[in-house]
Automatic annotation (TrEMBL):
Alphabetical list of InterPro entries matching this protein: 3Fe4S_ferredoxin, 4Fe4S_Fe-S-bd, ET_Ferredoxin
Native source species: Lapidilactobacillus dextrinicus DSM 20335
Top-level taxonomic group: Bacteria
Presence of keyword Electron transport: yes
Descriptive protein name: Ferredoxin
Its job: Ferredoxins are iron-sulfur proteins that transfer electrons in a wide variety of metabolic reactions.
Keyword Electron transport: yes
Cofactor dependence: [4Fe-4S] cluster
Assigned keywords, A-Z: 4Fe-4S, Electron transport, Iron, Iron-sulfur, Metal-binding, Transport
Length: 78
């Protein structure tokens, strides 16, 4: 599973980092990003982190966290 945050949809609520501190981090504006791969969506989420990923994914109030079974295109950071 691959994931990234659509920054334009993130409202900096803090829930994803609370639910999945090993996956999500915030930039200086409080906008979340995936720290596994600098929000590129190209690194497979390690199996032990999938439970916390699911918690964060379902907790995000805006749908800013997207996921995919395949890596996201590298030229499409957002
Ligand atoms: S839960 Fe969603 S809206 Fe809240 S900080 Fe994380 S990505 Fe942004």
């Amino acid at each position: 599973m691959y994931t990234k945050v659509l920054s334009e949809q993130c409202i900096a609520c803090g829930l994803c980092q609370l639910k999945a501190p090993d996956i999500f981090e915030y930039d200086e504006d409080g906008i979340a990003y995936v720290k596994l791969d600098n929000n590129l969506g190209t690194k497979d989420i390690p199996l032990p982190l999938l439970a916390q990923f699911k918690d964060a994914y379902t907790a995000c109030p805006t749908g800013a966290i997207v996921r995919s079974e395949v890596p996201f295109p590298k030229d499409n950071k957002k």
